Amino acid sequence: MTSRKAFLGVLCICAVALSACGTDDNAKSTGGDNDAGVGTDTSAAGADAGAADAGASSSGGGSADAGSGSADAGSGAADAGGSKMPPNTAPSAETKKLWALITDYAKWTEFNETKKMPQSKSHQNMFVHAYYNKVVADFIKTGKKPPLPEGSILVKANFKTKDAPKPAALTVMHKLKSGKWYWLKAMGNGNVFLGPDGKTPAEGTTVKTCIGCHTNMAPSGNDLVATHVFGK
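^ that's the sequence the OP posted. Answer follows.
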């Protein structure tokens, strides 16, 4: 039993490491990838990345308490059904502010590239929908090329199957005043997935898996966004 548990532990860490944040391997050729938001299936395995702004720009919409219903931060806590949840931890203060901005993300405009719910290889082959807030919508209307303005939020809902009732993970990008993206990969209750090391929360401006993946997958000059090409 001990060796089996150890083996399962290794599989879990591998799954986490493979779950690169915020891009779709098909994005570069199709302009399609995204990032997402609230009410996830906590039984999904793997984790890493996304985005959110601690600066809590008023452009995001929504006002729910990000901390409500927060699950045990332990990396092996079992849910009510008895299945283990992937490694996760409680959100930071910055992420809680972001969470309040994305509670109604599903009512935002969705990128045309994800309306047919494409499968994202870089997101554990999950099926995705990607939405953007009013700040991004206004920017798109200008026809300008990136960078996107402060307060821009992109939310991707990642589903294990096309008919899954809830997303298994929410990956988010939020543009800060500094010009950097705040990345986040979270569960539906606001808890944050841990990175490949099983210790570092997938939130903030330095989430290596998110930045590395978006750097490789996003079209050049597109502000690390892989879902949609702006200004074309």
